Amino acid sequence: MTATIRAGAATDVGKIRRRNEDSAVAGRGIWAVADGMGGHAAGDVASNIAVTALRRLEDIHDRGPHDVRDELARANEDILAAAVADPSLGGMGTTATGLCLVRLDGADRWVVFNIGDSRVYRWSRGELDQLTVDHVAPEAITGRRGVITRALGTDPGPRPDLWVHDARPGERFLICSDGLPLEVSDADIAAVLADCPDPQQAAEELVRRAVVGGGRDNVTVVVVDHV
Fold first, then answer.
1. Which InterPro entries match (predicted)?
2. Number of H-type helices and E-type strands within the chain
């Protein structure tokens, strides 16, 4: 891989929840957020299993989109196996959303992937675009909350959405759990991404605004710059 990447990550439990069930990875070639669900300790177990599987992508030389799909499938299998081994974890699940830098047709590309309602945005030339589609039942949406229709931890496993984009210097990506858009508008998200050139500073400021704005859910943010 020839792209030069800088990234920052931040998370907060918020004002309501007792436990942070989000997990994140900000590595050299994989950046992702997993938002766990299932109650008790199960949500954070599921999200941690998901990011552990995704971290294995770092070790794959000349990885491609199929490797991303394979690791998401393996994460689903690992979550189901953990629930069999410990029945108290039964019913746990998690979203899995992020970016993977791959080599395809001799060039660096981004693979954007999504299962659930965490999100990937691209901020470029002053425009903020949501690259992922929320897997939420439309009839259930109430103030950006709803019933998730796809999650890791199901049998059969969910079908991930994957998109491939050219890797262009100057782009900035935002990966977040739904605790961010629940409290912070797209306009305010774009303003922070414009005003904070350092990705770690941007991630921390977005999390801070989500907590100040209400903090009704865990919030996790990863900001990725292609410099």
1. PP2C, PPM-type-like_dom_sf, PPM-type_phosphatase-like_dom
2. 5, 11
